[in-house]
TrEMBL record:
<dbReference type="InterPro" id="IPR001547">
    <property type="entry name" value="Glyco_hydro_5"/>
</dbReference>
<dbReference type="Pfam" id="PF00734">
    <property type="entry name" value="CBM_1"/>
</dbReference>
<dbReference type="InterPro" id="IPR000254">
    <property type="entry name" value="CBD"/>
</dbReference>
<keyword id="KW-0119">Carbohydrate metabolism</keyword>
<feature type="signal peptide">
    <location>
        <begin position="1"/>
        <end position="21"/>
    </location>
</feature>
<keyword id="KW-0326">Glycosidase</keyword>
<dbReference type="GO" id="GO:0030245">
    <property type="term" value="P:cellulose catabolic process"/>
</dbReference>
<comment type="similarity">
    <text>Belongs to the glycosyl hydrolase 5 (cellulase A) family.</text>
</comment>
<dbReference type="GO" id="GO:0005576">
    <property type="term" value="C:extracellular region"/>
</dbReference>
<dbReference type="GO" id="GO:0030248">
    <property type="term" value="F:cellulose binding"/>
</dbReference>
<keyword id="KW-0136">Cellulose degradation</keyword>
<keyword id="KW-0732">Signal</keyword>
<keyword id="KW-0378">Hydrolase</keyword>
<dbReference type="InterPro" id="IPR018087">
    <property type="entry name" value="Glyco_hydro_5_CS"/>
</dbReference>
<dbReference type="InterPro" id="IPR017853">
    <property type="entry name" value="GH"/>
</dbReference>
<dbReference type="Pfam" id="PF00150">
    <property type="entry name" value="Cellulase"/>
</dbReference>
<keyword id="KW-0624">Polysaccharide degradation</keyword>
Amino acid sequence: MPSRRLCALALALPAAVSVYGQSPEWGQCGGTGWTGPTTCVSGTVCTEYSSSYSQCVPSTSTVTPTSTAPVSTPSSTPVAGNTLTYTGVNIAGFDFGCGSDGTCNPTGAWPPLTQYYGMDGAGQMQHFTSTDGYNVFRLPVGWQFLTNGVLGGDLDADNMVEYDALVQACLATGASCIIDIHNYARWNGEIIGQGGPTNDQFAAVWTSIATKYANEEKIIFGVMNEPHDIPDINLWAGSVQAAVTAIRNAGATTQLILLPGNNWTSAETFVSNGSGPALLTVTNPDGSTTGLIFDVHKYLDFDNSGTNEDCVTNNIDSSWAPLATWLRENNRQAFNTETGGGNVASCVEYMCQQIAFQAQNSDVFLGYVGWAAGNFAPTYVLGEAPTQSGTTWTDTLLVASCMAPIAGAQSGSTGE
């Protein structure tokens, strides 16, 4: 979730540059509106991917994934009329009590289920699938809730009964269900694999989760929500690798696994901050990359924090176009598992355009998941929870106008 008091500062900083005024390896070096360095450090070449984005690529780079990602084979150009594989909504509640420092109070979790005195998350998901045409839900949960606050501990049986009730309600709709550990690459302020929990401890919780859901083909494993301020991106890739290996070795050999990068896994900086190149090294135990999808987030407000009602951009030139090019270059795919805006006209305009662009590039973008429904009140600035009167559900403005597949935004205009 966009719990980011530091996010505005993080995103206000330009892409890292060397002391000599040159862009680093994989850094941006040109494009529409670019005011930074236009030359690259030694050993790299400023390569134009499109009129909107150029990047410093190693002059000897021949990076190629060991296998293609699933669902479709990336093509070379956007195609009007394409549709996204996944469209959905985050069903929040089990992540309540979590801060962006990875401090999650297990007692702060609020199951979005009526039997636990929450909102009717099950009814929301039934409405979203049967009426709006959605087919995926992301179910964020704090790591501490899963183990009842014990680092390295087993899944807590009582807590898992509650969380599994939401998972089963999701599966009952026929939709795919993303299990998302919502800890920002941390446990109580300490970074996984870099002074905090060990990679073995991180792998252990994923072994337990994957063992439980190994035979559920519609489960998607979201390795970690929004890592940020990670000192060493290559060490983080090693932590992600540990989780992937654990999931596959637990018997979940065919489901999608979502790989997140640094800087709140922002789509805009996924490549330039080194996340993309580092995560290219993550593989399945057999050396393939089948089912390994990059996890990216992007909001439409002025600081990409997801905390403001108004939208100011469709993110196409700054984020989606350059990322699409890079994904095609590397024969990989990404999934936008958090995006959203307020229920106002500006967000209707820009969100519809963003969705249209993603659909036109559905060979590399699997889909989007809006933030958020579940236990959020109707007054929540990014609320997507429908209101219920008797047996009738009414969607929010943004859902009805853009986010819901039946709204038709995928075949609409990109505004360009």
